[in-house]
Design goal:
Shape: elongated
CATH class of the largest domain: Mainly Beta
Strand content: 15-25%
Radius of gyration: 39 Å
Helix content: 10-25%
CATH superfamily of the largest domain: Urease metallochaperone UreE, N-terminal domain
């Protein structure tokens, strides 16, 4: 190879190891014989592979940077003593081998467990003001027989005879590039480097068993549907008795018969008779706190405000709303939303003769016997307003 290896890989002289690896991986995918069988392309693939072999080896890279000859003793691909393609193939296939063909080593039996998710339905009042609930969860826990070791009493894991405890075995393949050596997890020990000759009968060597247990979860005030409460290290225990993952409790808030929630605000509708809307009145309405049946103090009196008075002013129109400040849902961090009360005026549908006589008398007094039914300005649509504009109204 007569060209500069930095030029062959398209990197600068101050490029770090990760940049060099990415550059080679990109070129190798373009020039690999499986993609481009052209002889010229195969020759270039050999050159960039050799360039990467030089720049990925700290000693060879340092020798080249100092002007030394790193090509003389190599004798081509697969011919130099101790030459290994492990680094090159790991770079191409995304492996994790270290410089100089260093193995990744056996994988540990003890690993962190997975997170778990359960769903919990609560009432609106519980979501607004918080609640503590007991949950029954079915997760993996540490085996109490072997305490996570996975071995029967008095026994211990022994080194794997196939990989001699390395957790990996080398596979050699011949190609036009020469002998290519790759490392794969040992099939005999599944990459652990050790074998359990006498596994625990309770957990079959996994170090964990499934068990149902009871947990108490505290739901903070202000949660809503979709909110997840995290219980650290209460999820699945990992293989080999490894640390447990987290447990997430996803909240679903049930519909309320009286209140509808919009963010931190509550909405409700009250119906009043026509006469009450015309003359005005006061209504006693329940608060959301009234749903908290456990809010009673020791002397039997209520510890929270369970109702409030709503004043209906004379002449209240159907569909009008009143905002009661601070009677909504508390925020997760601070503050509290409002309660919006919409008034629905009910028109009587069944009148006896006397009631009909009185209403007709009232209509005559108010000169409403034959209403004109004029359209109010705010009720006109876009086309109505355009028509009025053209007519000069």
């Amino acid at each position: 190879m007569s060209q500069d290896p930095y030029t062959m890989l398209g990197v600068t002289r101050d490029a770090d190891a990760e940049t060099i690896k990415k550059a080679y991986r990109r070129l190798a995918r373009q020039l690999h014989p499986d993609v481009n069988p052209d002889p010229a392309t195969q020759e270039r693939f050999k050159e960039v592979t050799l360039a990467y072999e030089i720049l990925s080896d700290p000693q060879k890279k340092a020798a080249y940077d100092q002007g030394g000859d790193v090509f003389g003793g190599m004798g081509g691909f697969g011919q130099g003593a101790g030459f290994s393609f492990t680094d090159i193939m790991d770079a191409f296939f995304g492996g994790q081998a270290g410089p100089g063909g260093a193995t990744r080593g056996p994988r540990p039996r003890m690993r962190r467990g997975q997170d778990a998710l359960i769903r919990l339905e609560i009432d609106l009042a519980e979501a607004a003001f918080g609640v503590a609930r007991e949950l029954k969860v079915d997760t993996a826990v540490v085996c109490t027989t072997c305490h996570g070791e996975g071995t029967a009493a008095g026994s211990h894991p022994v080194p794997c005879e196939t990989c001699r405890g390395a957790g990996e075995v080398a596979h050699v393949q011949r190609s036009f590039l020469g002998e290519i050596r790759t490392l794969r997890p040992c099939a005999a020990c599944r990459g652990f480097g050790t074998i359990i000759p006498d596994p625990c009968r309770e957990c079959s060597g996994d170090g964990r068993v499934r068990s149902r247990r009871t947990l108490t979860v505290k739901i903070p005030a202000g949660v809503d549907t979709g909110t997840r409460v995290q219980l650290a290290e209460q999820g699945e225990v990992g293989p080999g008795g490894g640390p447990a993952g987290d447990l997430y409790v996803e909240i679903h808030v049930a519909e309320h018969p009286t209140f509808n929630r919009h963010g931190s605000d509550l909405h409700t509708t009250v119906a009043v008779p026509m006469t009450a809307a015309a003359l005005g009145t006061k209504l006693t309405l329940p608060t959301l706190e009234a749903d908290l049946v456990d809010a009673e103090t020791s002397d039997g009196s209520s510890g929270v405000e369970t109702s409030f008075e709503l004043e209906i002013k004379p002449g209240t129109q159907s569909g009008s709303s009143q905002v009661m400040r601070g009677r909504g849902v508390p925020g997760l961090r601070s503050g509290r939303g409002d309660l919006v009360v919409t008034v629905l005026v009910e028109t009587p549908v069944r009148l006896d003769p006397r009631q009909e006589e009185l209403l007709r008398e009232l209509a005559a007094i108010r000169n409403e016997e034959k209403p004109t039914g004029q359209v109010r300005e705010e009720s006109k649509g876009v086309f109505g307003r355009l028509r009025d504009a053209f007519n000069g109204h």
